[in-house]
Amino acid sequence: MASDVRLPSASEIRARLRIRHLDLLRALDSTRSVHKAAAQMGMTQPAASKLLAELEATFGVPLFARSRRGVTPTRYGLALAHKAGLLLADLDGARVELEAMTRGASGRVRAGVLQVVLPVLIPEALAQLRKEAAGVTVMLQEGSYDVLLNGLARGELDCVIGRLMTGAAQRTFRTEILYEEPIRVVARIGHPLMRSSRVNAATLARQSWILPPPEAPLRARIDAYFAEQNAPLIDPVVESVSLLANEVLLRQSNVLAAMPRGVALHYARLGVLGILKFQPDWSLPPVGVVTRADAEIFPALQVFLEAVCGQARALRLAAQ
């Protein structure tokens, strides 16, 4: 429904707004209490209430509804709290980048990375970056897709690199596909199936497996495959998506596991694991890079992404 609320002009808001107002807005959004927000910011409750009144007067709309239980953000408050979080995160990032520049760096990138790209894409991309822009520092943060995407949305990360999942808000993020990657079945060097030429779906179904947890997309694809082949799997020995844990377990027993082709080839080249000749047709969404749609690609991020895309092109060529 359209509203007849008339907001102050942008210049009026800029003239009145202070960083302290944004700090209070973030504290109120997280605590939902003027008392707790005041304590978090090291001020008295009356001072916090006065600051909130200034903030609402600055924008000309009610930002929080008061009650005996505390405060609840209005739709205006929710929208402004999100923007305040991005502004403060960008400011924090700028401060850290300036600190890095005082030590001789020419820029800093905060990249969220999923396990699927750590062994095969990131090391070579960083090596290329070191050659072309030695002053750029990259902070890597590993985590689940949802956690990293939330960090990107809050402005705590500059990009996320990994398998692109469905459901990301297109207006919030921009995505670029780097490469497609099939799944490979791996086992320890010397596993009996490594020497066999008669492996099929029924053979795989009789083996002990390390599988992803039931909620993982790959697990659904694996379960569907064996159901289609009328060859139900026995219960897995372990459910895990940890590459390190899976590698250790694979090397010490006769279990099988499914890994992205790039990761499987990485371990195969190291002589740690082997790839079975028989490979089911399993695939997952492509690997790509995600950035915020409302944020500019600054120079340090640009050269880092160019290095990542260059290594992705090399991986595509090697797979042909």
Structure description:
The strands form 3 sheets. A 5-stranded mixed β-sheet has the order 4-3-5-12-6, sandwiched between helices. Strands 9-8-10-7-11 form a 5-stranded mixed β-sheet. It has a two-stranded antiparallel sheet with strand order 1-2. The N and C termini lie far apart (55 Å). The protein is elongated and about 75 Å long. It is 48% helix and 18% strand. The protein has helices spanning 10-16, 19-31, 34-41, 45-59, 75-102, 122-132, 145-153, 192-195, 201-205, 217-228, 243-252, 261-269, 299-319; strands at 64-67, 70-73, 107-113, 136-142, 159-163, 173-179, 183-188, 209-211, 238-239, 256-260, 273-275, 287-292. The mean pLDDT is 87. It is an alpha/beta fold and 320 residues long. Helix 6 links the parallel strand 3 (107-113) and strand 4 (136-142).
Please give the number of β-strands.
12
**End-to-end distance:** 55 Å
| Average pLDDT score | 87
Q: Which ranges are low-confidence, i.e. pLDDT below 50, for 5 or more consecutive residues?
A: none
Class computed from helices, strands and strand pairing: alpha/beta
Supply Rg: 25 Å
Approximately what portion of the residues adopt beta-strand conformation? Answer: 15-25%
Task: Report on the biggest sheet.
Answer: 5 strands, mixed
Write down the secondary-structure element order: HHHHEEHEHEHEEEHHEHEHEHEEH
Order of strands, main sheet, comes to 4-3-5-12-6
Q: How many helices does DSSP assign? A: 13
Quaternary structure:
single chain
Helix coverage percent of residues? 40-55%
Shape: elongated
